[in-house]
UniProtKB/TrEMBL annotation:
Location(s), subcellular: Periplasm
Main localization (coarse): periplasm
Listed name of the protein: ABC transporter substrate-binding protein
Keyword match RNA-binding: no
Keywords: Signal
Entry keyword Repeat: no
GO cellular component: periplasmic space
Stated family: Belongs to the bacterial solute-binding protein SsuA/TauA family.
Organism domain of life: Bacteria
PANTHER family reported in the protein's UniProt record: ALIPHATIC SULFONATES-BINDING PROTEIN-RELATED, TAURINE-BINDING PERIPLASMIC PROTEIN
The species this protein was found in: Paenibacillus protaetiae
Length: 335
């Protein structure tokens, strides 16, 4: 081979090496975040939009999503460092704080701002009246969890004592509540979408009321992490929040059909019409937060609900375990 030929080969090797080094440098700029969600639900549509639309990637993040069914399991995964960020109800962070944790869990970005469950009856009901629940068998949720507390808050609002006026069943694991109702347990149940609509389509149950509408605005599902992780990874937490805000704005400005088509890969066994109707139901009642900020009014409503449920002895101040600085910066940066 001629000298010119060798020079060309050598130049090619150098260029290839530079490309590899550059690629490695780019890869090192990407931060991996292990994210655990409390359940798989269309209630969390903006989270899936952030993943599918590449908003996390735009922010230099590689987010690995796993479903850690139930608030207790999700919080255990976070505290044991199995995940970096949890999507779960804010009540779990309050429980951890009030147990005297040395490394408290901090709420930094709100995803949903209402309860996400619906009251589903086994039989079709015309002209529903909450008093018709009295004396029935009600398949409830985990004691101390947000679905159960928001449910009890709503029942009491309508003059129903859930522990005396109902045959309340609460000994079924979160992931098995829907299958238990489908197999014949209970006259009424609280269900998230798309399960509520699937049951309705199959004739297993009928959606007759919304706990989200009844219980008002609250930080129902929030992204949170341990204080130690936040202190060491402020840039990553900011990037994560930026991506969530982009997704929230996207969902707010796009139709239920467009959102359904974006997130359908997370619900392979659910028909498109169910995806659309479920997302539309959440959009219509304002369940999806349009920004990540957790405000004082929502926080106080949460504390009221928890107090009424007898789950806290004292109120944890908003600023103690809520950090809105990332949400505020995300909104400012998007302007």
């Amino acid at each position: 081979m001629s000298r010119t030929g060798w020079m060309r080969v050598l130049l090619g090797v150098v260029i290839a090496s530079v490309a590899i080094i550059a690629g490695c440098g780019k890869q090192s700029d990407t931060t991996t975040i292990q994210l655990g969600e409390v359940t798989r639900s269309l209630f969390y549509a903006p989270e899936y939009v952030a993943l599918e639309k590449g908003f996390f990637k735009e922010e230099g993040l590689d987010v690995k999503l796993q479903t850690t069914a139930g608030g207790d399991k999700t919080m255990t995964a976070l505290l044991s460092n199995s995940i970096d960020v949890a999507l779960v109800g804010s009540e779990t962070s309050i429980y951890v704080y009030q147990q005297g944790a040395d490394d408290p869990v901090i709420n930094f970005a709100q995803l949903t701002q209402t309860d996400g469950t619906f009251l589903v009856s086994r039989d079709a009901v015309d002209n529903f009246d909450w008093n018709s629940l009295k004396g029935s068998t009600f398949l409830g949720q985990r004691v101390g969890g947000m679905p159960q507390m928001a449910g009890e808050f709503t029942l009491k609002k309508h003059g129903i004592d859930p522990h005396n006026d109902l045959n309340l069943i609460q000994n079924i694991d979160f992931a098995n509540v829907a299958p238990a109702f489908a197999s014949g347990t209970g006259d009424y149940v609280q269900l998230f979408e798309p399960t509520a609509s699937v049951f309705e389509k199959e004739g297993t149950g009928h959606v007759i009321a919304s706990f989200g509408v009844e219980s008002g605005h609250l930080p129902y599902t929030v992204f949170m992490t341990k204080q130690s992780f936040m202190n060491k990874n402020k840039k990553a937490v900011q990037s994560f929040t930026n991506a969530i805000y982009k997704a929230q704005q996207w969902v707010n400005s796009h139709s239920a059909e467009e959102t359904a088509d974006t997130v359908k890969s997370y619900f392979n066994d659910v028909d498109r019409d169910i995806l659309i109707s479920s997302i539309d139901r959440y959009k219509q009642q304002g369940s999806f937060a349009t920004d990540p900020i957790i405000d004082d009014e929502e926080w106080n409503n949460l504390l009221d609900i928890m107090s009424m449920a007898g789950q806290i002895k004292e109120r944890t101040a908003h600023d103690t375990i809520v950090d809105n600085s990332f949400a505020e910066q995300a909104i400012q940066s998007a302007k």
